[in-house]
Amino acid sequence: MTEISTETIDVAIIGGGFAGIGAAIRLKQQGISDFVIFERGTAIGGTWRDNTYPGAACDIPSRLYSYSFAPNPNWSHTYSGSNEILGYIESMASELELHSHFRFGHNISGIEFDETAGLWDITIEGRTDTVRARAVVLASGPLANASFPAIPGLENYQGHKIHSARWDHDYDFTGKKVAVVGTGASAVQIIPELVAKAASVKVFQRTPGWVLPRVNRRTNSLTKQLYRRVPAAENLARRAWFYGHESVALGVVWNTPLTRVVELVGRAQLHRQVKDPWLRRQLTPDFRAGCKRLLMTDDYYPALQAENCKLISWPIARLSERGIRTAEGIEHQADCIVFATGFDVSKTGTPIPITGRHGRVLAEEWQRGAYAFKSIAVSGYPNLFLTFGPNSGPGHNSALVYMEAQIDYLVSGIKTILDQDLRMLDVRRDRQDRYNAGMQRRLTATTWNSGCSSWYLTEDGFNATMYPGFATQYVNQLRTVDLDDYNVVPAAARTPRIAAVS
Fold first, then answer.
1. pLDDT (tens digit, 9 = 90+) per residue, 31-86?
2. Beta strands 323-326 and 316-319: pairing type?
């Protein structure tokens, strides 16, 4: 009979993208080296490894879309493309010698907490050996899973289908009739690239978004040299970008007079770039700026007005064998359909099955909307830490600022578990409930909850995605791990010294 081997480690990190690598770096800097990064793919990079569509780039300035503890003085432009961002991620892993900690091709199929041992049992798809970890960092990210949308007739379509997050670089668009479904952040980057190659491009829009200008300047060699020689100068530039974006919160997180200013900028961009009154009307949002994600681009509106491009605002009824049929009964034939429809963001479930204390299943508890204590910990699931968890989404600033604060907090929590030899560090239910009640109360005053339909909300309007405040507020709440917020159970204890939370 084959004996199943079991390995025990201090920390399991699930996901090898920005969050997983950031957590690994901070763990090493705290002297914690017994960790493994489980990555289902064959390379590092997460979202930026997967999103290689034409025109892929970040709409947050590079100086801010990076970790403060791993500055990069060599960014080529104000806003970087996906290849350069992936290169930054790879350089961090190389410089900190993280590659020996990676296990590629390891798709985690579930984790279950053993309360007696104080360990997480980790199962890996297609493998019989198991891994046990004292702490788990769920760093798979909100933009890890993508699938085609549930449009009737999807399987009947006989042409070529491409999802923006799984780009087919072998397909030649030259001379092809192309349909693009979606007009969000990825679509506005893809469409200008397709218009430059394809014979025709039809863009199927459900709702228009607020489009703001994005001035992408090349960074000159003298600036790079200054940042390399004087790191404080680069840090000053980063802080300037940070506080500039913080001020934007007053116009997009809440509905204020500054919201009108943001909308004026958007309307000015629309009037400057789009001359046809009917097309302008089709591209004018009917919701407040900030309610949906703002789109940063200078190229989208000109591409829509190219001779080989047409905007279709009729709703899609179904796909046919040859293309897309819209609600008024017209069939739009296409050789290829590009689905720029975003990701399967987990607002009501979990990316993998997670079983906590007393057999509790997190996906069941999150059926009506995800929640956590400070976005990071969930009561009943000890020693488990989330990155980019519920209500940690920024509407105005860099996701990396939020993520860095989360990483520092969870590393502090893990160090506490290891240094104090704890069996369980389990957030108290009352602290969690109080935090989330306040979170939902504050969200009622934000633009995200002002009535528009967006991926931020569940079908019944619960906002499990966004943080209703400034990035400064979010960061400050994660400065320290207050053990009064937790049930602390030493490893030697047979029974908890604080009653278990039901």
1. 999 999 999 999 999 889 988 999 999 999 999 999 999 999 999 999 999 999 99
2. antiparallel
Decide yes or no: CATH 1.20.1250.20 for domain 6-145+344-490: no
pTM higher than 0.70:
yes
Which candidate, 392, 358, 395, 400, places its Cα nearest to that of 375?
A: 392
Tell me how far apart the alpha carbons of residues 409 and 431 are, in angstroms, rounded to a whole number.
17
Tokens in use for 116? Answer: 């007696």
Whether the Cβ atoms of residue 180 and residue 308 lie closer than 8 Å to each other? no
Distance from the Cα of residue 498 to its chain's centroid: 36
Q: Are 225 and 381 in contact (CB under 8 A)?
A: no
CB atoms within 10 A of CB 445: 12
User: Looking up tokens 């190659």, which residue turns up?
Assistant: 197
- Specify whether the CB–CB gap between 330 and 212 falls below 8 A: no
- Please give the Cα distance from 87 to 248 (Å, whole number): 29
Instruction: Please state, as a whole number, how many other Cβ atoms lie within 10 Å of the Cβ of residue 128.
Output: 10
Per-domain residue ranges for the chain?
Answer: 6-145+344-490, 154-210+254-339
Class in CATH terms, 154-210+254-339: alpha beta
Q: Taken in order 274, 293, 397, 43, is the CA torsion positive or negative?
A: negative
- Of 152, 164, 151, which Cα lies nearest the Cα of 336? 164
pLDDT band at 346 (very low <50, low <70, confident <90, very high): low
Q: CB neighbours of 407 closer than 8 A, spacing ≥ 6? A: 19, 22, 23, 26, 387
Same fold, 6-145+344-490 and 154-210+254-339: yes
Q: How far apart are CA 95 and CA 99, in angstroms?
A: 10
**pLDDT confidence tier of residue 348, bands split at 50, 70 and 90:** low
- Reduce the DSSP state of residue 291 to 3 states and report it: coil
Query: CB within 8 A of 288, min separation 6: which ones?
Result: 255, 259, 263, 447, 450, 452
